[in-house]
Amino acid sequence: MPATPTLDDLRRYAVARTLFTPTTLLTAIRRLGFVQADPIRAPARAQDLTLRHRVKGYQAGDLERRYSRLPIEEDFLVNYGFLPREHLSLMHPRVSRRPWDASTRRKAAEVLAFVQERGAVHPREVDQAFAHGRVTNYWGGTSNASTHLLDGMHYRGMLRIARRDSGTRIYAVAEHALAEGGKAARLQRANALIDLVVRKYAPLPSASLTYLARLLGYGAPHLSVEIQQALRLARERLAGCIIDGTQWYWPAEENPRSRRYQADEQVRLLAPFDPVAWDRRRFELLWGWVYRFEAYTPAAKRRFGYYALPLLWRDQVVGWANVTVRDGALQPDIGFASASPMKDVLFRNALDDELERMTRFLTG
Questions:
Q1: Which DSSP state fits 82?
Q2: Alpha helix locations (H) across the chain?
Q3: pLDDT given at position 140
Q4: Global confidence as pTM
Q5: What end-to-end distance do the CA atoms of the chain give, in Å?
Q6: What is the mean pLDDT of each run of 10 residues along the chain (364 residues)?
Q7: DSSP labels for 270-307?
Q8: How far is CA 352 from the centre of its chain?
Q9: Which residues of 109-133 are buried (b: 16+ CB within 10 A; e: fewer)?
Q10: 171 close to 115: Cβ distance less than 8 angstroms
Q11: How many alpha carbons fall within 13 Å on the CB side of residue 274?
Q12: 72-76 and 80-84 as β-strands: parallel, antiparallel, unpaired?
């Protein structure tokens, strides 16, 4: 029986397994399985900040520029983002928990015919053709009803994102094969979804695995019963151990103690939703401090800043940085969770290298 990993082993494993050698854009997305998206650009969108560490020569905006030529989709998994097209069959046809009334179904059918006739449409074209008016949105304000309807049609698999024009979604008709409806086939898809999130976010504390299974109800609400069954099965077949009272899980074919999982000498500024930092529960267990995403926190209550990027040095997240660009020059505002490593010449040189990489990524 292999030796039980230590927390140090899990820390190295968590970093090294996802920060693989930079590769092509499509290969990186397939290895990650899913790339979370976020519209805030500070200094770049989260999907670009995530991919820059994993795609050779990546520059901000490459994903949007190349999206229409790659077999990838904007869609929903545990949240909204980009995923390889082959994963869509695990979630589609998607059945929403919120059925539409007859009026909304009629409007959706009209818009679907409109999009089918034109091939691809801008939301403004739909609004001009149908004048659906305004609706109350999730946050209590109002938004364009046509945009709201298009979002709902995309979620339900009627439409797909063909591309973006200046950040705006351009919609086309989606085509999804009918999925097998038997219990065995549904459980197989649920098992595959659990495996997908485990491969992306391992090693996972038990509570985080449960949380991710619940979030899969966003991407596959119609498989909620099967996902809970798949979760129970996963706890039996995944590898794992208990450290300081916390149960951890990871793919059975991986060994966190393997010498292949070694930290390099780089400093990296990570996206707030990077796989290294996404699980805040795991973050605190591995690095001993609490990191929070504060873009929606009132400025007076922020500790880290509007869009603080976790600062990774070797296999330690030692602090954070808020990064702005003024007159083409990068201006980082760096904070540290405990003692500053700035006296270490190796750290300072590695930080300079990372800031230079960030500058090239942002400015070309």
A1: E
A2: 7-16, 25-32, 46-51, 62-66, 102-118, 123-130, 145-155, 183-201, 206-219, 224-237, 280-287, 345-363
A3: 46
A4: 0.93
A5: 50
A6: 88 97 98 96 96 98 97 97 96 93 94 96 91 50 76 96 94 89 93 98 98 97 97 97 97 96 96 97 98 95 97 98 89 95 96 96 88
A7: PPTTSTTTS-HHHHHHHHSS-----TTS-GGG-SS-TT
A8: 27
A9: eebbeebeeeebbebebbbeeeebe
A10: yes
A11: 27
A12: antiparallel
Bond preceding residue 2 cis, omega within 30 of 0 = no
pLDDT at 258: 96
Phi first, then psi, for residue 327 (nearest 5°) are: 55, 40
Confidence (pLDDT) at 137: 44
- For residues 122 and 171, give the distance between their C-alpha atoms in angstroms, rounded to a whole number: 7
Give the pLDDT of residue 139. Answer: 36
Considering only CA atoms, which of 284, 236, 195 is closest in space to residue 11? 284
Q: What share of the chain is helix, strand, coil (3-state, %, to 5)?
A: 40, 20, 40
